[in-house]
Design a protein that fits this description.
Layout: E1 33-36, H1 38-44, H2 52-65, E2 69-73, H3 79-90, E3 99-105, H4 108-117, E4 123-131, H5 134-141, H6 145-164, E5 170-178, H7 185-199, E6 207-213, H8 220-233, E7 240-246, H9 253-262, E8 267-270, H10 284-292, H11 305-316, H12 337-352, H13 386-397, H14 403-420, H15 426-436, E9 446-455, E10 458-467, E11 470-478, H16 481-493, E12 498-507, E13 514-522, E14 528-535, H17 538-557
Parallel strand pairs: 1-2, 1-8, 2-3, 3-4, 4-5, 5-6, 6-7, 7-8
Antiparallel strand pairs: 9-10, 10-11, 12-13, 13-14
Helix pairs in contact: 2-11, 3-4, 4-6, 6-7, 8-9, 12-13, 13-14, 14-15, 16-17
Length: about 550
């Protein structure tokens, strides 16, 4: 049961003493180095860890996306991990521009096994860690600060010495003061400096210092303060790469990584879609695409986001949430009427502008950049308005309904959605449209053929239609085609309509396209009736539109 006074049990996280912090005014202007830890941190968090086939499939996906540093496993954890990693090296599966990285605890036997798994590699990163925070020192290890520091020093010496035994490999090193975010900053710095003293990094071959939020216990601004503090106080800043490894325990792993970059970090570690222990690691997809929407090429290619999702879901046996940023099946979808209307207008404005700048309400990224189409951007349920319905018809059938016709048909769709209590798909909407505007099935009036004659301003319509199961010829005179059709309906069939508005447009583009025509009509008793017609000939489409309205009148009489 939750406490009325949680301060009796939990303490607020202390602030960082950082006068004149600089990161709040910084802007991310370039991508970081990316490390995927899907095959190590992500894999160890799975209910069923990946087998060799899945790990290879995931590895190939990361190469395709463009990740250049990949933590391929924990070789000392067992034969499965060791064999997979050594197999990558033996098979020549690692491209020359990709760094494989492996993780090891700070133990002599485990470090030796780790180096052995990479024997023959052209280049590699070996990542060693030891926990440094008070909870781990006091509870888990029961060691004091000097003892914890000695673990880091001994591990650094083992890295140096094992690397010297395999001089043909270009070795790089990473050190993590694990649980950094909950440790004292001065002690984390002390451990990092001790490792630097042993490994002697240079600007040409820097040491990676990973500063993890192993457990996220504070707001992301505090993590940014911690990163900036280290960047200010580390002795050889030009010879170290500051790497971020955030977790999502408070739901701000992405924000912490972004603020950490603003605070001076150089590298981001994480997993695709944020898989990882407990609530997961930093989501590399979200961080990368956040940059992309700010005009920065992240260096990672998610042009086919659905292929990435399918592979990750297969390998992890975990679904990507439908609301996951950028990737979920519903993230580019609007059900709300006002949202749909804004999106529809945004697309129209986007098409009209003569530039490439993306500026569509509710859509921070163009779905097509990720291999998605616009079909599912607007979907219809009982919350949808006329704009959403019109959008579906425009995308699916190429019809651009006049505004008042949109309002007329949206009432039909609203009633159908309320009745069915479910989302309506494009087929549902089209079936309702055909029924409401009398476009399908047997109708009172159907055009067989027609002929138009006369001079300008005095036109004669002569047509053949089906009526009551047979064919009938009708004719009428007016100042144009539509008025002569209305005259024929009035004089021959007793159907009185007056056109209040007319519009037409091509369906699609090119020289061989159909046309759509729309009429808004008034009846003698003041009712408004809409009609629509489509044909490869725009004049025929306008005749069909008038007959569509006439059929609605006839149906109301029955």
């Amino acid at each position: 049961m939750m406490l009325n006074d949680p301060s009796l049990k939990y303490r607020p996280f202390p602030q960082v003493d950082l006068p004149n912090r600089q990161w709040p005014s910084k802007v991310i202007t370039a991508p970081p180095r990316w490390l995927s830890t899907d095959m190590r941190d992500g894999n160890q968090s799975l209910i069923d860890p990946m087998n060799a086939e899945k790990k290879r499939r995931f590895f190939d996906l990361l190469l395709k996306v463009g990740v250049k540093e990949i933590e391929v496993g924990f070789p000392s954890a067992g034969a499965t991990e060791f064999d997979f990693i050594s197999g990558l090296v033996r098979d020549g599966a690692i491209p020359d521009d990709v760094f494989p990285q492996v993780l090891t605890q700070a133990r002599e036997d485990l470090i030796a096994t780790t180096f052995e798994s990479l024997r023959g590699a052209k280049k590699a990163i070996v990542h060693v860690y030891n926990a440094v925070s008070p909870a781990w020192r006091n509870i888990v290890f029961q060691m004091d600060r000097p003892q914890i520091r000695d673990i880091a020093v001994t591990a650094a010496k083992l890295l140096r010495d094992n690397a010297a035994k395999q001089p043909d490999t270009d070795w790089h090193f990473e050190y993590s003061p694990e649980t950094f975010s909950t440790a004292e900053l001065d002690f984390s710095l002390e451990c990092c400096e001790a490792v630097i003293d042993i490994l002697q990094p240079t600007p040409e071959k820097p040491l990676i210092l990973n500063l993890p939020a192993t457990v996220e216990c504070a707001t992301p601004n505090i993590y940014a303060d911690q990163i900036e503090w280290i960047c200010r106080n580390i002795s050889r800043r030009d010879s170290v790469v500051i790497s971020l490894h955030t977790h999502n325990d408070r739901g701000t792993g992405v924000a912490a990584a972004e603020l950490g970059l603003m605070a001076g970090a150089d590298r981001v570690e994480g997993c695709l879609f944020g898989n990882g222990e407990r609530t997961g690691n930093c989501d590399l997809v979200t961080v990368a695409l956040n940059m992309y929407t700010q005009g920065i090429n992240p260096g990672l290619d998610f042009s086919d986001i659905d292929e990435v999702i399918q592979t990750v879901e297969y390998c992890n046996q975990l679904p990507v949430h439908p609301r996951h940023p950028y990737a979920g099946e519903l993230v580019f979808t609007a059900f709300s009427g006002s949202h749909q209307d804004a999106i529809k207008k945004g697309f129209a404005a986007q098409e009209a502008r003569n530039d490439r700048i993306w500026d569509v309400p509710y859509l921070p990224i163009d779905p097509k950049d990720l291999g998605r189409d616009y079909e599912a951007v607007i979907r219809v349920n009982s919350q949808s308005g006329k704009g959403g319905v019109a959008w579906v018809l425009q995308q699916d059938k190429g019809l651009k309904l006049p505004k008042r016709m949109q309002a007329d048909f949206s009432k039909v769709v609203q009633a159908l959605a309320d009745e069915s209590s479910r989302e309506l798909n494009a087929a549902d909407i089209w079936a309702a449209f055909e029924t409401h505007y009398r476009l399908a099935g047997e109708q009172p009036y159907s055009l067989i053929d027609y002929h138009e004659s006369g001079a300008a301003g005095d036109r004669i319509f002569t047509g053949k239609i089906t009526h009551k199961g047979g064919e009938r010829s009708i004719s009428g005179r007016g100042n144009g085609l539509i008025s002569s059709v209305l005259a024929a309906l009035r004089d021959e069939l007793g159907v009185e309509l007056e056109v209040a508005d007319y519009s037409e447009h091509a369906i699609g583009a090119g020289t061989d396209v159909a046309a759509a025509a729309y009429v808004e009509c008034r009846t003698p008793d003041g009712r408004t009736i809409f009609g629509i017609g489509t044909d490869t000939d725009v004049a025929t489409a306008s005749v069909q539109a008038v007959l569509s309205a006439a059929n609605s009148i006839a149906a109301q009489r029955e």
